[in-house]
Amino acid sequence: MLFESMVRDGVDCNAQTHAIMLVLHTRRKNWDAAKKIVARMESEGYPLKHILQMAQLSKTEAAEVLKGVGVASVKVFSPDELKDRLRRQLQMEQQGYLSAPSIAAVHKTDSPEEEALKESTHRLMRQWRRDLTAALKRDNEDFKTVVKCLPALGSKFFGPKQYPFLLLLPAEVWADIVVEEVVVHILGQQQGLPLTFLCRLICDSAWHKYVVLQKKQRGVVEKTSQLYQQFMSHLATPSPPHLPHRQLWQDMDDALASAGSLSVDIPKWPFTVASYVGAGLLSRLIDTAKLSLSDDCNGEAAFFHSYEAGENGWQAGHVKGHQKLFKLFKKYYIKHESTHFRLAAELTPMLIPPRPWSQVNEGGYFVNPVSIMRSVADVYQHHSLLQQAPNLNAVFDSLNVLGTCSWRINTRILDLVTEIFNRGGNDDLGVPVRDPVFPEGLENQEPSRRRDAQMKKLSNECYSLWMDMLYRLSLANYFRDDLFWMPHNMDFRGRAYPVPPHLSHLTSDVGRAMLQFGTGYPLGDKGLDWIKIHLVNLHGHKKKGSLKERVEYADEMMEHIMDSADRPMEVS
Fold first, then answer.
1. pLDDT of 160 over the 90 cut
2. What is the largest CA-CA distance in the chain?
3. Which of 21, 161, 411, 540 is 20–30 Å from 338 (CA)?
4. How far apart are the C-alpha atoms of 474 and 98, rounded to whole Å?
5. 3-state SS assignment for residue 189
């Protein structure tokens, strides 16, 4: 009543007045009035986090306000929490990957036999890493000696074109890349993997590590951390600057010019580099990696190179693992080591709001290099034209606005989908199954090259969908109790997409259902009707009906809708 009387009498209520009234209504649990105050303040340009700061609420009172006005997902970071989240984000990006527990993992106490298998596997990996590191160091020394005498020559495995790139990273880092990433990929596919794919995998990982190394050595990481904390402090003030985030970031960067530049423009290595550097490293791996599982296979090559006929008849190089390796990895490594997934840092959401885009190659993540435009690898004309583009400030600002939207996991839906997934999946519900369902009669046909190719294609597609869902559910479970953010970039048409592919609102209905906005707001006058319309659209029964008919149909089915929401796994 008091607030309405003040408004009716023309009294000018400032932000502090609104905050005081919010405290009064909170203590009385008058949530309708509290919602009106929050809506009024937000319409006047005061975000909810600023309202809570001005009201000087205790932690308990703030949580009660958020719950009462229907935005319990909001979380106001303290300076210490922001600093800790920034530290974790930078650590993950410099490490290059995020280790997320698999939702399909079953943790049991290992038997003595499994412990022995575990030790054998880890011992092999350590031995391969040591042998490959030693071989690369010898090659480096040999090359330095050869160059002094005959510049046109190289070693058995590497020529003069490869060595400048091999010297960019220590031999230990190259060995880690090959053993930790490439070996696991090879042992995950019994039929082997194409040589070109592995070469690109090696060099993409090496380029990322080199860029991170350069940023650390040039002080970019330290300056970015300092600049970001100042940037967020400015935005958290009761009266933040009325500037685009891009402009504010650039102004603060200019003020810290004495700390060096944030720009580290290192072109991505072309496929020609990937082909001859990657091929040399794989040749070295094949030469040095030996089996030492037992006396009968000691000294045998763990990996070998072969040629496979492709669909077009061309012969393509493949790298395969020894059959005895697959038996070992099937018994233990694939079962136990897959309890955790290593996801590239640039494919995961962020723990804090992204760095504002200010240039075509500067924005989103703090350390990991991401381009503002998606393009096929080695299409350098796209990058060249992008660099020559005129004023892109409007594009930067649009992507920055999208990146400021926080998200959280709908844990109820996540647990439901996880339960269905671990039961074997259900194609009708959009949850992939593990084993493919072949067309009727296909398995009973006479064996032929065409039938085998069709069955292999279906199996690979089914496994790919299953793994994609496993990644998505595991990553969602990792972030289940956290707020997170998604940096955005665009394709050549200007369509904006979240950079992280696994957790995204631009995906299937199942993927979208697991996401919620980090900051909730009350529905407007027609908000509930639009939710009903969307629900009927998903059902598909009234696709040709008017909007009014769809709302009426949702009202008719409301009892069944609520029953499905309350008991999704039961049939009534």
1. no
2. 95
3. 411
4. 11
5. coil
